[in-house]
Design a protein that fits this description.
Belongs to the multicopper oxidase family. By secondary structure, the protein is mostly beta strands. It has helices at about 10-15, 150-155, 165-170, 455, and strands at about 15-20, 45-55, 65-70, 80, 85-90, 100-105, 125-130, 135-140, 155-165, 180-185, 215-220, 220-225, 225-230, 230-235, 240-245, 250-255, 265-270, 270-280, 280-285, 290-295, 305-310, 320-325, 350-365, 365-370, 390-400, 405, 410-415, 425, 430-440, 445-450, 460-465. A hairpin with a 2-residue loop joins strand 12 (about 220-225) and strand 13 (about 225-230). The structure holds CU-O-CU linkage and copper (II) ion (CU).
Length: about 475
């Protein structure tokens, strides 16, 4: 099983409030799995994305308006090489301000998507990503202060893959057998539109505005790459899946049914592991990534293999299905050594700090906010000033409900686990984790926050400044 500190007793209710769809949801495993298109550069290293509303068919026979990067959900996949600067020009044709954050990117502060660094409606701006970091499964998503939950829910999320020579030299599955899987949960109104309980968290607490969903919005329909409980035909061969949980508030415990050989994890949030790790189950919190290989040659042609969610119930207990079609040649392999990952030790840390994530300490219109060390997010507050080039030990504590904690810029290791470099760690209620954080690359102001997007919008975020 999975060794990371996780929310092992998690139930749907403790993560948020389930919103039931009024629309008719499809039979599971009838819609084919889509794969987001890879974005073509306008010239080498330069990309352009227009953020706009578009009507798409998610539920068969109904139209859903998404807010999409280039009008699609998930957005197009960007592929970059390590150390080659990628410039993405975003034009905002949505009627609201937006912010783009490259999650997991080691990015200068002015391009990191600080939550108040808005791109106004009708405006455009360039984000410059040096990507001086190992091959990894990154993703980009909206990060507008107070509105990240509703804006990501409407579709503003996409993959950004970083590749490098070390990874290319490995005989991992590739081409058609390397597939990104973005898992999200959504609920739908009767007309097929996305149902989100409050579009404006800043109104919470005012008359007639419900606060019932501030613990997190849970949908009853599971989408993979934007399709409801999809089905994918596979050869009886190895496949590499880059699994991302882009849900607002839902965490998953994934398993295969029938179990077969399970998942061989080759990478985590920030890139390849030193060596592969076998899992029967993968617990994946919001924003975490698991890069895995599944070997379908263990099944026979004709067999159906369902990706299930052991934390779900009814519809949310199912994610997608693979149908094994035929035996086929496979020259891929998972080597015993994958990448150089130098383990940090506590003695590398030059400072220790503690951050408690809980509900309380601050109020807004009579609503109790979600806070970091009792303080709600503010543009001026600074909770830590680590020095560039150092490692610090940060003790992260979760109270009230589970919280997945994400630190911008600085990758970290969780001592005693085999998950390599991470940027997001899941904490169960009452849990604490010690993480060894390496501050490298850039000086400036960044945020750490809970990646339950409703908690984040309700102020569970803080600034740190690398000096
Ligand atoms: Cu994925 Cu600060 O976010
Ligand atoms: Cu939280």
């Amino acid at each position: 099983g999975c060794a990371s500190g996780g929310a092992n007793t998690e139930t749907e209710s403790s993560a948020g409030t389930l919103l039931r769809s009024a629309a008719k949801l499809p039979e599971p495993f009838t819609v084919p799995l889509p794969v987001p298109p890879v974005l073509r550069p306008v010239r080498p290293g330069h990309y352009e994305i227009t953020q706009r509303a578009a009507e798409v068919e998610i539920l068969p026979g109904l139209r859903t308006t998404v807010w999409g990067y280039d009008g699609i959900f998930p957005g197009p996949t960007i592929e970059s090489r390590r150390g080659e600067t990628t410039v993405v020009r975003h034009r905002n044709e949505l009627g609201v301000p937006v912010v783009v954050h490259l999650h997991g990117g080691r990015t200068p502060p002015e391009h990191d998507g600080y939550p108040l660094d808005l791109v106004a409606p009708g405006a455009a701006r360039e984000y410059v990503y040096p990507l001086d970091q190992p091959a990894a499964t990154l993703w980009y998503h909206d990060h507008r202060a107070d509105f990240t939950g509703p804006q990501v829910y409407r579709g503003l999320a996409g993959f950004h893959l970083v590749r490098d020579d070390e990874e290319d030299a490995l005989p991992l599955p590739r081409g058609e057998r390397e597939v990104p899987l973005m898992i999200t949960d959504r609920s739908f109104a009767a007309d097929g539109s996305f149902a989100y309980p409050s579009v404006d968290p800043s109104l919470l607490g005012q008359p007639g505005v419900t606060s019932e969903f501030v613990s997190g919005v849970l949908g009853d329909c599971i989408l993979v790459n934007g399709a409801p409980w999809p089905v994918m035909e596979v050869d009886a061969a190895r496949y590499r899946f880059r699994i991302l949980n882009a849900s607002n508030a839902r965490r998953y415990r994934l398993a295969l049914d029938p179990p077969g050989p399970g998942f061989t994890q080759i990478g985590g949030d920030q890139g390849l592991l030193a060596a592969p790790v076998r899992h029967e189950r993968l617990q994946i919190a919001q924003a975490e990534r698991y890069d895995v290989v599944i070997d379908f040659s263990a099944y026979s042609p004709g067999q159906e293999v369902t990706l299930v969610n052991r934390l779900g119930d009814g519809g949310t207990a199912r994610v997608m299905r693979f149908v094994v079609t035929r035996r086929a040649p496979d020259d891929s392999a998972v080597p015993d050594r994958l990448a150089d990952v130098r383990p940090l030790s506590r003695s590398d840390a030059v400072a220790e700090r503690e951050f408690t994530f809980r509900r309380g300490g601050a109020e807004h219109h009579g609503m109790t906010l979600w806070t970091v060390n009792g303080m709600p997010f503010s543009a001026d507050g600074v909770v830590a000033e680590p020095a560039l080039g150092t490692v610090e030990l940060w003790r992260l504590r979760a109270q009230n409900v589970p919280h997945p904690i994400h630190i911008h810029l600085a990758p970290f290791q969780v001592p005693g686990t085999a998950h390599g470099w991470k940027d997001t760690v899941d904490l169960g209620n009452g849990d604490q984790a010690e993480v060894l954080v390496r501050f490298e690359g850039y000086r400036g102001k960044y945020v750490l926050h809970c990646h339950n997007l409703e908690h984040e919008d309700m102020m569970m975020m803080a600034n740190f400044v690398v000096r």
